[in-house]
Amino acid sequence: MAAARASLGRILPESSILFLCDMQEKFRPSIAYFPQIVSVAARMLKAARLLDVPVLLTEQYPQGLGPTVPELGAQGIRPVSKTCFSMVPTLQKELDGRPQLRSVLLCGIETQVCILNTALDLLDRGLQVHVVVDACSSRSQVDRLVALARMRQSGAFLSTSEALILQLVRDAAHPQFKEIQKIIKEPVPDSGLLGLFQGQNPLLLNSRP
């Protein structure tokens, strides 16, 4: 019964964490829909702060790829530098120190590299992974699409920022609901997802185990 419940992918603030992966200056010109992806990740960050969901932020080789872009709004969060194409090895101690952790909400770039490898490493630890599809992108939209399908095949959940935020809130009686409403009432920028999902794309159909 517990396994069946876990497979639903329900999330709670007290057992969740938000991962923000490598949204840095040097990626700005090359990543498709970069401003839109960062905007949606910033929306997730605002909601996480309101709901007391912890946040971890990484930067890939910042000496060469630059700092996290300011519009993410992550000032006050200490970035963790890495060279590995996964967030998990660098954040191992943080994860080990959170025995209550069940779910990771994953935003950032690139989908087929650090997002995919982070998702696989987290799944390997027995954690649920929720990929925020409107907050992840790549240089190539083919890579983005195939990586999303690959993660879903491996057991990750694909969801949108609004769906995840409202899952965390759960009830309009939540004391922070009015502030959350302000966030979700802002239009979500188009990040090319309709083009990936339209026509019942076979890569994203019936791909869960």
UniProtKB/TrEMBL annotation:
Superkingdom of origin organism: Eukaryota
Domain Isochorismatase-like: from-to ranges: 16-162
Signal peptide segment: none
One matching Pfam family: Isochorismatase
Family of this protein: Belongs to the isochorismatase family.
Complexes and interactors: Interacts with CDKN2A.
Protein name: Isochorismatase-like domain-containing protein
Organism: Myodes glareolus (Bank vole)
Lineage of source species: Eukaryota, Metazoa, Chordata, Craniata, Vertebrata
